[in-house]
Design a protein that fits this description.
Layout lengths: L2 H8 L2 E7 L3 H4 L7 E2 L1 H14 L4 H20 L4 E7 L5 H18 L4 E6 L5 H8 L4 E6 L8 H17 L1 H23 L6 H17 L2 H11 L1 H32 L2 H33 L5 H26 L4 H23 L4
Parallel strand pairs: 1-3, 1-4, 4-5
Antiparallel strand pairs: 2-3
Helix pairs in contact: 3-4, 5-6, 7-8, 8-9, 11-12, 12-13, 13-14
Length: 356
């Protein structure tokens, strides 16, 4: 017997079937790792029954075939077969699970080298995990032959098309979005701007990715569903804030152009915009007060307190703005600040302690 043959006889080889996305656990309810010829066969049958079209089934039977072939060379006493599974989320989580299961397998069978079998090209991260534990001398991807003829190819293709059309989520992306693009192209061409069709499509796709990326569609729907009065009142407040800021800016700009005094312009901006903003906030608080009062909730008192606070805060702010151009009015500011503090204390004592 030659040296090479002796080495082959003494070497221990393990055939490892890698199920990176753990279909065997999720579909067939088989605990992994699976070790041994009989256990692997039973696992393959369970997965085939659970999902006859799953590619991992073919990979497991491919691993069994490789186990038989290698056993003829090295002997069954020097060979073993096992299934290790990762995680449906793949990536690092799958690698960690595969590493743990591989350690369990190698703890029961001290292999000198491994044959790797999977349903596709094995990820480099998975290979590095296995290579760090046992040398790999063969990698066998088992690619499923779905069809050989044109008729079978069309049958397989039609199944995928039907699954896309039946799935509401997939149909929106693979049917709805292309439909919108075609309509957009047609409209742009009809109105005589066909040269800008590419830009129109890019703007549409960019907007779609922006909405989906930041989940703006979900947030808008949730806002509309959860906040009926809040949405309306929020829009009103925003309009008053924008309108107040615009009015204050125009007033301040006119004052600065006339007098050239920056402090006077700032004071004009605050006094010009502040009362409009305060009215907008007050409208929102009154609306919430009515809503809570009708529903007989004690929280209506919170909105009454907020209404009082809005004007109690605006009073000293108003006089502070006036002091920027008229320092002699500082006494009015101090007086208004004291009144506001007293008013805030009284408001809290009346409305502040609310059991919700």
């Amino acid at each position: 017997m030659e040296v090479g043959e002796k080495t082959a006889e003494k070497a221990k080889v393990i055939v490892i079937c890698v199920d990176e996305d753990a279909d065997i656990r999720s579909k067939a309810n088989v605990n992994t790792p699976v070790i041994g010829e009989k256990a692997v066969k039973n696992a393959a049958v369970k997965l085939a029954i659970a999902d006859p079209e799953d590619a991992d089934t073919n990979a497991i039977f491919g691993a069994i075939k490789a186990y038989y072939e290698i056993s003829e060379i090295y002997g069954k006493e020097n060979c073993e077969i096992a299934i290790i599974a990762g995680d449906p989320r793949r990536g690092a989580l799958a690698n960690l699970r595969l590493e743990k299961e591989l350690d369990t397998v190698l703890g029961k069978f001290k292999a000198d080298k491994a044959v790797i079998v999977s349903d596709s090209i094995v990820d480099e991260g998975v290979l590095s995990v296995i290579q760090s534990r046992v040398p790999i001398f063969s990698i066998n991807p088992v690619i499923v032959k779905h069809s050989k003829g044109l008729e079978e190819t069309l049958l397989v293709f039609s199944r995928y098309i039907k699954s896309v059309l039946r799935d509401p989520y997939l149909s929106r992306w693979f049917v709805g979005v292309p439909g919108i693009i075609l309509i957009l192209l047609t409209i742009v061409s009809i109105i005589g701007y066909g040269a800008y069709a590419g830009y129109a499509i890019l703007i549409f796709l960019g907007s779609l990715l922006l909405v989906k990326g930041f989940e703006l569609d979900i947030k808008v729907v949730e806002t509309v569903r959860a906040a009926k009065t809040d949405l309306i009142m929020g829009i009103i407040v925003v309009l008053f804030i924008v309108g107040g800021a615009y009015y204050g800016w125009m007033t301040a700009l006119a004052s600065y152009n006339k007098f050239g005094n920056l402090y006077l312009a700032i004071g004009e901006f605050i006094t010009g915009s502040g009362w409009i903003i305060a009215i907008g906030i007050s409208i929102m608080l009154v609306g919430k007060f009515i809503e809570e009062y009708i529903s007989q909730s004690l929280k209506y008192r919170v909105y009454l307190m907020g209404l009082a606070y809005t004007w109690l805060i605006w009073l000293p702010v108003h006089y502070l703005a006036l002091c920027l151009s008229h320092p002699e009015l500082v006494l009015y500011f101090i007086t208004s600040a004291v009144i506001s503090i007293i008013g805030a204390i009284v408001s809290y004592s009346i409305f502040g302690r609310v059991e919700t």
